[in-house]
Amino acid sequence: MTTQNPMLIVEDLEVVYQRSIVALHGVNLTAREGEITALLGANGAGKTTTLRAISGFIGLDNARVTKGSVRFRGKMIANRRPDQITKRGIVLIPERDKVFPNLSVAENLTAVASSQHSAADRKRFEQLVFDAFPRLATLRGREAGLLSGGERQMLAIGAAIVCGPELLLIDELSQGLAPVIVEELAKRLVELRRELDLTILLVEQSASVALQIADSAFVLENGRVVLEGAAAELRDNPSVQSAYLGAGGEGERRNYRDVLLNRRARSAE
Question: What is the pTM of this model?
Answer without folding.
Answer: 0.88
